[in-house]
Amino acid sequence: MLADNAGAVPFAGGTDLLVNWPEHVEAHDRTYVDLSGLAELRPIRWTEDELILGAGTTYWDVIRDARAGSAFPLLIEAARQVGAIQIQARGTWAGNIANASPAADGVPVLMAYDAVVVLASRDGTESIPLDEFYLGYKQTRRRPEQIITRIRMPLREYSFQAFHKIGTRRAQAIARVGLAITRCGDAWRVVASSAAPTICRCPSVERFLQEQRRVNGPDDLLGPLGADLSPIDDLRSTADYRLRVLARLLSHEVLA
Known about the structure:
Elements: E1 9-11, H1 15-19, E2 32-34, E3 44-46, E4 50-54, H2 59-63, H3 66-71, H4 73-79, H5 85-90, H6 93-99, H7 106-112, E5 116-121, E6 124-129, E7 134-136, E8 139-140, E9 147-154, E10 160-166, E11 177-184, E12 187-193, E13 200-201, H8 203-210, H9 219-228, H10 239-255
Parallel strand pairs: 1-2
Antiparallel strand pairs: 3-4, 4-9, 5-6, 5-9, 7-8, 10-11, 11-12, 12-13
């Protein structure tokens, strides 16, 4: 259907689509392909070395999965802060990825767990690491004829994991600043949200931590963060606020 209808928009939970529906009149004339009835996209699957989330997997599906809470606790933390329970029961992890908001709650933890996005079309399948999926603000590598079919995450032993969402409320509010951190062996993953045009990893910060440089306080992390991020001033917060809050969060976790 997507291949035969140029410009058609695939969706599942519809939570991002419908929240602004009354104001976005131009969206009413587009063609939408509802994927929510495809049972093949729904299940959570475990293999010996991976967790696989079907594209229709909701936040609530993951919250209810005891093994997910043990192996990937940041998924549960993030899922419980995505809107109210009604949104958690309908919104999908794949939709959070595809919507490409720089303030997404689910994407930072997926990226910190080295998630891979699997896309499919009539021409076959394609796998893209989530940290390479975004091209710019609201721009992704998904082609119009493709849908996300699943999200794969490797099973690993993590020595450190943390997730923070700074907003006006713990849930039902857009993040002013978000941060996800994991450490597996000597490898760090530091992912920031609401601090750049896309959710993004912070390679300079990761190298700083991997090299075990001394951190005396937040100011020591402003340089690496500034090399990785380009936050802006907007109605939710300022660029300076975002960098300084991220530095404080990182410093708190590293020095804890």
